Amino acid sequence: MELLLLFSVISFPFAVRLNVGSAAGSSLNSVSPLASGKSIGRHSAECHHMLKHLYNGAQVAVHMPPNITGQWVSSSCEVRPGPEFLTRSYRFYHNHTFNALQFYYRDNHCTEPTYSLLIQGTVHVQQASWVIRGGTEADYQLHRVLLFCHTSEAARDLSAKLRRDCGLEEAVKPKESYELWDHATGRDCTGPLGFSMQELLLLRVERHYRHGDPDSQTKELLLGDLHTDVSRRKVHKPSSYQPPLQSIKHDHDHSCIICQIVSRGSLQQPPSLPPQANVPVRVQGHWVSQRCEVRPGILFLTRHFVFNRDGHTWEGYYHHYSDPVCRLPTFSMHAIGHYSQGQPSAKVMGGTEFVFTVTQMKVTPLDLATTSLLNIFSGDECGTEGSWRLGVQQDVTPTAGCAALGIRLPHTEHELFRMERDAYGRRLLYNGQRPTNGSSPDQPHKRASSYQPSLVQCSPGNHGGTNTGREGDQHFRLGGGCRGCHSDRRFHLFALLIWPLVILQIM
Ligand SMILES: *[C@@H]1O[C@H](CO)[C@@H](O)[C@H](O)[C@H]1NC(C)=O
Ligand SMILES: *[C@@H]1O[C@H](CO)[C@@H](O)[C@H](O)[C@H]1NC(C)=O
Ligand SMILES: *[C@@H]1O[C@H](CO)[C@@H](O)[C@H](O)[C@H]1NC(C)=O
């Protein structure tokens, strides 16, 4: 009773039904903590509030075309597929040239630098991307890539790679810089390092500020993602983003200490981040997205995970949208299943292995396009044939999933998790990056070696004050003009065609 009341009080854009009866009576054979309605209800209310007010109550403006002039730096130790641990400090000039510094490390807290790259070139911002709404395409050209090793171990390691794959005769020495790329002769020795600047093909600049407080403004630069298969990096066309870089100029509140440290790094003097202990992975509780997330293949979504106290059952709510600020819902999925926590990863320092299984799935179409797509699929492939109605949830477990959405049940995935605390002491949960080729990590060797954007634990009082912020893409709309209307239509058609191929990306 209390549960229902809570849900009706929150003006969530669509109803999420927590069916206590069916969860408790499912084949999971466990006492669902949903039975403890009071605390779950309170947490859910909190999580819904956080999802509704993404970006912590700050207003977000997206500038089209983006102005990338200035210095942009990592706000944490980043993990790239491989894994690679790095921080970035990129500087873009008015005259379209750029100096990008990439600092690589031995450890997952970026305390021990191994080598650094200085990349110089030009970048030209082009038109709005119609594949990734809200993104802008750009072209780049490299002029120079310099390598500088900080330790003799790193120098030995890279020497071996460069000798094997690039015919480099002399050994690389530490504390000396080497040209890996020569624009004039076309010599390219960046391959053995898995180096690529394809990230510059997709850009997005977000300005975050609190209402009436211009001093709190921060600017973020999102650059294109990297292919999870390192050998495909050089030819990959980004279809989502890496973690945002922060503008140094606009970091007025100095809350980002790591940004300050990274911004002072140079090729010869790489930044070392303060050492910290790994935060033990304890997933129990509720976790929600901190921003409108982009998945490869034009999907925008927010996620809400519940890991039950029994330590082996979980639920996930996936709210999908057609727009980059997550305001226009298309459909939602509610997955239920079990999981087991494994060993610390031997491959990815700081990561912990998990195995997830989805046994039950409910789907709610939330726009007309998705509703008709679901109805077009005939037979027993997705719920009751032809019965889908806008805003009405159906359990697709009896049809072993939903062919239209590419969902097959039961479904098992091999996962990688890590945990961290943010600058405000809140716990953050990261789970594995999905393979870029759209496959599912359904075998242990496909387990991720990098992570998706973090989820934050939702608990009462976590939602950053009383600001009822409004996420806006007004600049995007103004800039879009009529070409925007046209690409919207194309976007929609494209979405319909490609959906069955890309949807099942649980987690
Ligand atoms: C872009 O940003 C830079 C630095 O913030 C500023 O100096 C410049 O005037 C801006 N350019 C445009 C065209 O707005
Ligand atoms: C572009 O501007 C930067 C900084 O003002 C300067 O160092 C560089 O030489 C300029 N490059 C060109 C090609 O004009
Ligand atoms: C997709 O990527 C996974 C993980 O990298 C790999 O194991 C699989 O073979 C790839 N599938 C295709 C069809 O390329």
TrEMBL record:
UniProt biased composition (Polar residues): 433-442, 449-460
Location in or out of the cell: Membrane
Keyword Ribonucleoprotein found: no
Annotated Gene Ontology cellular component terms: membrane
Entry keyword tRNA-binding: no
N-terminal signal peptide: 1-17
Alphabetized UniProt keyword annotations: Glycoprotein, Membrane, Signal, Transmembrane
Membrane topology value: Single-pass membrane protein
Annotated TM spans: none
Region (Disordered): 430-472
Primary residence: membrane
Sequence ranges assigned to domain APCDD1 in this UniProt record: 46-275, 276-461
Name of this protein: APCDD1 domain-containing protein
Organism: Coilia grayii (Gray's grenadier anchovy)
